[in-house]
Write a structure and sequence with these properties.
The protein is mostly helical and 457 residues long. It has helices spanning 16-22, 25-28, 32-48, 54-73, 85-97, 99-102, 110-146, 166-191, 210-216, 226-231, 234-261, 288-301, 318-342, 348-355, 362-370, 376-393, 402-408, 416-419, 422-427, 437-456; strands at 151-156, 159-165, 268-269, 345-346. The strands form two sheets. Strands 1-2 form a two-stranded antiparallel sheet. A two-stranded antiparallel ribbon has the order 3-4.
Length: 457
């Protein structure tokens, strides 16, 4: 069993069951790279400040780099009896360098060490998640570009409401995901400050240079208060929240894909590569990917943190499993969702046929009368009566004879049929943000421009 680095205070060894209960290396082992990165910065600063000799500093840095290389090559395996990744790496360093290895922890505590590691790890994770969301927005823009004139019904209360285009629908999700990117960026800005040098909670008597370690780690500044430095986990909660919102967007999209794949809609079909079958019903093609995303969303939303006193407490160890799980699930969902969208087949004729039913041009019929001088509420009532009349006859507004229109208002003339055609209904909705092809093209251009700003800013 690995020797505890804090041995000395206790006269008896810790019960093996407590060691197993305490151990976190099974999940914090993934932070080995960030732990070594932080230790290299710390060793560099110790040497520069003359707290340890420059030769010891260089030997520590060389030893840490060797350990990193050995872990990544598979030559060095984690000791699962070690308490955590920090103790494992320090013990391995001491094993290789002797007394020099023992100098690494000068003016540092595991409290500020783990606080740094989780920030560095999540900083890298945000970069990966962000890249995936950017890719998804680009895919949505491409799909929208190809479908600015693909008419489909827009829904409210899951009832056919007004005609839109598939491109317009895709751009709604693009806007949501742009906000997700901005939330990740905002979280990263507050996260990217260094707790290193806070030590256990009260700083240190050594003449350390916290600005230097922050600089070496690519962080904007050291944290101002040492108590806050070791106890803050706001950034974990903030990132969990940003991930939850992004997952919620994927879940909403997934729900629509599930409906659109059904025979009741049949607007799209997913590639066989992203569908599964039934063990008993040979005709089935199930959208399991999207169903799993719905389920994983609920799981991610459940990850959070309760109130704790200052400063570090052992139950803060639990933050890692929750936030790692949230990161892993969003990454998994995005890496599957993006190619699923890219390979789906659209049934544009089915979309248009669905838009032709349900009187989704009724608002345009009312607007036709308003544009001829009639108050909207009067036009609304007349159009409602025409819809009821069509239902009674089993026909549509497009097929209703002009004489029936004129019984309701003399303002109706032959041009009403053009005004209520699906193509006109969509093309005339030119207001900013609307579904007209030119409006959707503007949305695509603005989205691509914003995406470039976010990627290059």
């Amino acid at each position: 069993m690995a020797e505890m680095m804090w041995a000395g205070r206790s006269s008896q060894g810790v019960d093996s069951r407590v060691n197993a209960f305490n151990s976190s290396i099974a999940f914090d082992g993934r932070m080995y790279k960030q732990d070594i990165q932080g230790s290299i910065a710390h060793a560099t600063m110790l040497g520069e400040q003359g707290i340890i000799s420059m030769s010891d500093s260089l030997e520590l840095i060389g030893g840490l780099k060797e350990i990193l290389a050995d872990i990544e090559s598979g030559k060095l395996q984690f000791d699962m009896t070690a308490e955590d990744i920090h103790m494992f790496i320090e013990a391995e360093l001491t094993k290789r360098l002797g007394d020099v290895g023992k100098r690494l922890h000068t003016s540092r505590s595991r409290n500020d060490q783990v606080a740094l590691d989780i920030r560095l790890y999540l900083r890298d994770a945000i970069g990966e998640l962000r890249e995936l969301v950017v890719s998804l927005v680009r895919v949505l823009c491409n799909i929208a570009d190809e479908n600015t004139e693909t008419i489909m019904p827009g829904y409210t209360h899951l009832q056919r409401a007004q005609p839109i285009t598939f491109g317009h629908h895709m751009m709604a999700y693009a806007q949501m995901l742009l906000r997700d990117i901005e939330r990740f960026d905002d979280t990263l800005r507050r996260m990217n400050v260094s707790p290193l040098g806070s030590c256990a909670l009260a700083g240190t008597t050594y003449h350390i240079n916290r600005d230097r370690t922050a600089e070496l780690l690519g962080m904007s500044a050291p944290m101002v208060n040492s108590l806050d430095g070791v106890s803050d986990r706001d950034f974990c909660i903030e990132l969990a929240s940003a991930i939850s919102i992004c997952m919620m967007h994927l879940s909403r999209f997934s729900e629509e894909i599930i409906m659109w794949c059904s025979w009741e809609f049949k607007f799209i079909e997913l590639s066989d590569r992203f569908s599964t079958g039934s063990s008993i019903m040979p005709q089935k093609k199930n959208p399991d990917v999207t169903e799993l995303i719905r389920g994983k969303t609920a799981r991610v939303i459940g990850d959070n943190m309760k109130g704790l006193p200052l400063a570090y407490n052992k139950d803060m160890q639990e933050d890692k499993e929750a936030i790692f799980d949230a990161v892993d699930n969003l990454k998994l969902c995005l890496t599957t969702f993006i190619p699923m969208l890219e390979t789906m087949t659209l049934y544009k004729d089915n979309m248009r046929r669905a838009a032709a039913k349900g009187f989704i041009n009724a608002t345009d019929c009312a607007d036709y009368l308003v544009k001829k001088g009639m108050p909207f509420r009067t036009a609304y009532k007349i159009t409602g009566g025409l819809v009821a009349h069509c239902i009674e006859l089993g026909t549509t507004l497009e097929e209703l004879p002009l004489a029936d229109y004129q019984k309701q208002s003399e303002l109706f003339t032959e041009d009403v049929y053009d005004a209520i055609s699906l193509d006109t209904c969509v093309k005339e909705r030119k207001s900013f943000g609307g579904p007209a092809p030119e409006s959707v093209k503007t949305q695509i251009a603005l989205t691509r421009k914003r995406l470039e700003e976010l990627c290059n800013g």
